[in-house]
Amino acid sequence: MTARPTETDVQAVLDQICTAWAAGDADAFAAPYAEDATVAMRGVFHQGRAAVRDHMAAGFAGPLRGSQGVDTPQDVRVDGDTAIVVSRAGILFAGETELPAERAVLATWVLLRRDGRWQIAAYANTPAQ
């Protein structure tokens, strides 16, 4: 019998993303993304886990070096093998302790549970202001 998924299960995936970001580890960051995941952000559209990994590796080697992603869920809905999370998120650059309002985004995450494992199927964000 498969355990019923919970918000805690979904939050663990987002925590994994934040931990990988803080470590500057593009492989660990991309690991929870589905092979066919999509990412849509201002000026950016990526298709596939490999594209997410390559984008983050370039960021961690350059402008995102020493940064960390912050992500605070505002709404989490789990229905069977699908979860939707809306969060307030952003990037803290090296030395920052608070997210400037002008860099805050509202992010939407779509997660699917496949073979008993939660994977990020889609991510999109928009400025919070």
TrEMBL record:
Annotated protein name in UniProt = Uncharacterized protein (TIGR02246 family)
Question: Which Gene3D superfamilies does the record match to this protein?
Answer: 3.10.450.50
Name the SUPFAM superfamilies on file. Answer: NTF2-like
Organism per entry: Jiangella mangrovi
For this protein, the record's Pfam families field holds:
SnoaL_4
The chain positions of domain SnoaL-like read 7-122
Q: Check the record and name the NCBIfam families matching this protein.
A: SgcJ/EcaC family oxidoreductase
Top-level taxon of the source organism: Bacteria
